[in-house]
Amino acid sequence: MRTSARRRGVAAAAAVAVSAIGLTACSGGGGGGSAAEATCTNEIKQPDAAQVTVWAWYPAFESVVDNFNETHTDLQVCWTNAGQGADEYNKFQTAIEAGTGAPDVIMLEAEVLPTFTILESLVDLSEYGAGELEGDYTPGSWSDVSNGDAVYAIPVDGGPMGMLYRADIFEEYGVEVPTTWDEFATAAQDLRDAGFEGHITDFPTNGNALNYALFAQNGWEPFQYDAAKPTEVGITVDSPEAEEVLSYWKGLVDDDLVATEDAFTTDYNAALVDGTYAVYLAAAWGPGYLQGLSEADADAEWRAAPLPQWDPENPVQVNWGGSTFAVTAQSEQPEAAATVAKELFDTDEAWRLGVEEAALWPQWKPMLESDWFTGLEAPFFGGQKINEEVFLDAANGYEGFSFSPFQVYAYDQQTQALYDMVQNGTDAATALGTVQDGLVRYATEQGFTVSE
Amino acid sequence: MSSRTSVGKSAAAPSATRPTSKIASRRQRWGYVYVAPFAAVFAVFLVLPLGYALWMSLHNKGIATAGRSVFVGADNYVKAFTDPVFLEGLWRVLRFVLVMVPVQIVVALVAALLLDTLATRLSRATRLLIFVPYAIPAVIGALMWGFLYSPRFGPAQDVFGLVGLAAPDFLSSANIFGSLVNIVTWQWVGYYMIIIYAALRSIDPSVYEAAVLDGADGRQIALRIKVPMISSSMVMIVVFALIGTLQFFTEPQVLRSSAQGAIPSDYTPNMYAFATAFNYSQFNYASTLAFSLGFLVFVGSYVFLFLTRKQSGLK
């Protein structure tokens, strides 16, 4: 009897503890300063050390956090997955507006950095010695996180672009793998003529960052924004370069040679791997994404090739996605937070975990240029050394890209305009003009001095 | 709103007529103690946030002028009621009201009248089956329908294939309106049906006997006797449906994850307010949008209740 009563007491205490955890978790992920009370997804290895709260959604991130906590005695990372992409940004926006509730360190995609620097919600890390790290990272990735001497985040992974294709499909229908966009259009038609029932690829109207990269490959620079002059923005979305690219895709859509399915839905995921598409225009994290999808075609033979070019004499490399660690202005221990942001991914060991378990593409040069990394053979691609053959050139050739300080809005506007274009038959110039006008109006409303 | 005021009135009435004695006033004081927990929660979670939102809606903070909140008076409201996106969203939910509310009410009414007439064992099971969708949370329901509408995984292709047809794309911009009406109807009809059914059960059966003696047939009993006698319940569920539809949010927001082109982020006024606040970080304008919508919902329900005051027994 006595034991059972005690056990019941223990159970009750556990229940109270669990509900208490639930309550603190609901109260906004713990404040910047109240790290000690925050609940972590990971286990804290050094209970006496200072704790830094981190929001991140990297796959297999727990082992990277454990690695950090095991190798640091004075600092511990307390990690929470606050959702992926927009979900996390929504929470961060709310915390900024509330003035409390943000973590010390936050994972942000490079494309939203201006959106948050303009809200004065990120710490300039150059005060904490981040400037000295410039040489450790690829020039493109460093340009995405810095502005003059100011450094708003530490680059982690990137998305140099390439073309993943189904070698078996190209072989079966006797079509050459394209290296330029002209050849790509021809290959699309040849595949159709040879009896291929799918589409060569998909042009998703909601493929925000993908479409940005495709336009950028033709020299598109939609925004001129300098964080040092936060009230001025240049908007030139409807440039001839973008129109050329968009007209090209519009032509393929009109001839029903490419599909226009929304990206990142269950249907799209299935179509990527079941042989509906012969090509997946992908970033370096794409192979990892493919391997995570189920219902794959068992006979599929995937290979990687460089992204097709507009002008093969002057190849242009572009980037799709990639993320960074930033320190929030709400952090009460910015120095410790900066250390965490700098050191989470700055060892071979951490990066091996990142590459092997999470299929991340390192922007950290010591790993990027290591023989181990360049020589990796990808079993999914029949042993092809895809890093060395395809993505390394793309990563080194990428020169950076300037995003707007209202990027989520800009993406939503573009999705709408492109959807109208493929559904209702408006032309490329009209679609881009709509986006341009909408963004100029919006930016003016928000108090920017806009130059077109 | 209406039920709360009427309850308050009837509770206050006896004490007003009675001369206030010491005992009565002491009992009244205890009443405040009983009300206090509710009043505190009500104030903290409803009145205060509403007041704060109102305050926010009268201020503005542009992205370029981060952190500096300026009092702008009614400027935001002027902007909202001339904002084509907001007005288009309003027009869209109005169209949903015009289609969705009648469909739901008619289906619920027919189901309730049939179930009221039939007294077989099958009718009890049917009643439960019609009600079950209401027991599923709206988000889960919308996710399920997202799967059912999927061109690749959904059953539609197989069903239409049986008769040699191609299934329509439920998530295209042309069909999304009907697809959403379908989800909401499926979800809410059971609930409205139960309310109507309960009202029908409370009618004295002797009324039907009298009608039968007077020569009324089943259809006449249903339309001339049952429907008028439950009109106050009907008014209530129309008000529920009206308010719910004007605030349309959950279903389109969930379906948006698989149809971003057909359902833009500003599809309904509530979605627009959500995106404005949490995606575009303009909490001030979002408060204005939310308040404007709240005001219109209030006016809409008030006008409806006024027009139907005879049927609902308010007059």
Automatic annotation (TrEMBL), chain A:
The keyword Membrane applies. Pfam families: SBP_bac_1. InterPro entries: Bact_solute-bd_prot1, SBP. The keyword Membrane applies. SUPFAM superfamilies: Periplasmic binding protein-like II. PROSITE patterns: PROKAR_LIPOPROTEIN. Keywords: Cell membrane, Lipoprotein, Membrane, Palmitate, Signal, Sugar transport, Transport. Residues 1-25 form the signal peptide. This is Multiple sugar transport system substrate-binding protein.
From TrEMBL, chain B:
It holds the Pfam family BPD_transp_1. GO terms for biological process: transmembrane transport. The chain crosses the membrane at residues 32-55, 93-116, 128-148, 176-200, 229-249, 285-307. GO terms for cellular component: plasma membrane. It is found in: Cell membrane. It is a multi-pass membrane protein. Keywords: Cell membrane, Membrane, Sugar transport, Transmembrane, Transmembrane helix, Transport. Residues 1-20 are annotated as: Disordered. Belongs to the binding-protein-dependent transport system permease family. This is Multiple sugar transport system permease protein.
